[in-house]
Amino acid sequence: MNASDEPLSYYRASANAHTGHPALQGDIDVDVCVVGAGYTGLSAALDLALAGYSVAVLEANVVGYGASGRNGGQICSGYSNSMERIEERIGKEDAAMAWQIVDEAVELVGQRVADHGIDCDLKWGYMHLAGKQRQADDLEHMAEEYTRFGHDDIRLLDKAAVREKIGSDAYVGGLWEKRAGHVHPLNYCLGLADAAVKAGAKIFENSPVISVDTGDAPKAHTANGTVSAKFMVLGGNAYLRDTVPFLYRRLMPVQSYILATEPLSENMAKSLLPGDEAVADCNFIVNYFRLSGDRRMLFGGRASYSTLQPSDLFSFMKPRMTAVFPQLGDAKLDYCWGGYIGITVDRMPHFGRLGPSTYFAQGFSGHGLSLSGMAGRLMAEAIKGQSERFDVMAKFKHPIFPGGRFRTPALVLAMVYYRLKDMLP
Ligand SMILES: Cc1cc2nc3c(=O)[nH]c(=O)nc-3n(C[C@H](O)[C@H](O)[C@H](O)COP(=O)(O)OP(=O)(O)OC[C@H]3O[C@@H](n4cnc5c(N)ncnc54)[C@H](O)[C@@H]3O)c2cc1C
To answer: pTM of the entire structure?
Structure first.
């Protein structure tokens, strides 16, 4: 698949100036070979290059081609699982470390933006919104957990308070938090790539890895060359597909779409989201939205378990946006695009090793903007010899998706069930 075959995203159209990277030609030896130039791979490459390792990043397309250059830009806190459930699975002590890791993931975004001077419209402030009472009850439970884990800068919102924070009647309750936020995701990704290159990493674009050897001396093979390394980091996530079947069987690539309006007037933008927060609702098929740096409404959602692109993405997405913001019915729609989110069966990220010196992390299940950067950091730590935090995350065992090669139809049926559930009071 080539980037030019796809609808242009708002992010590509507003990307910061950046230089391209050559394709791999011939065979090279490095300390660490990284597959994939998204947040996961680039984050590992950056930390390792800063620590003095020689690093080669192989990217099938261009930097940020995958989810990292297409996402909702929402810097989420926490996991797609309750901490209660996580404590049941790995015990209280390790769960406390897992919480500290996800907290640090969010901080890491802010730190890297500051340390490397990345120009990416970073803003703090986030709202989870409930469209029905039972979702508002879930948010109360979430607030209790957040407080238990030391987040005191959160606020539950009743219907009247929600109405002050958003120009929509679609919601009855909410949870506001200060520590999460939003960012121009592609510019953040390009900034990480620049930082990694400045630290000494080499990036090869248009260099799809065809196969990997994950033995004592890992190797990644492309059509025109091979990278031999002491360590390998697999950061291909939902875009890696069949290249590593063990990983692909434990991941479901799910399409999500985002619609961008024209830039809105200052008054309109203020009437929709006066606090300029990022927002996600509590539906299983989640709506997520925010204003861009140039005041467009970026409205995402509508997951699809089929791999088909809808023939008309605009008409596919617009009703979803106008159900929340009818006042945008006449707004001109400038961009609509999609991308693959990698989800796991239980929505916890999948960390692990394949062989003695090949590390992977994938399946951030819609929470990857910050968590994937942290995954890169934990893999870099493990390569440097400190694997305690990586090993805690690797404690989550991941079954293969039920249904084998029929998993897509099975999940389409599950989606119909959850979509109906979203519609019930
Ligand atoms: C539409 C959409 C909206 C989203 N919204 C949010 C959000 O608001 N907040 C949030 O937290 N998360 C969100 N996510 C998820 C988030 O974007 C991802 O979790 C995160 O970007 C994953 O980063 P990654 O580096 O692991 O994978 P990716 O960014 O997908 O990078 C993988 C890279 O590997 C490359 N690659 C794959 N196979 C090979 C190969 N064989 N050889 C060489 N290179 C290869 C790909 O080309 C790609 O560039 C969203 C995702 C999508 C698609």
So the answer is: 0.95
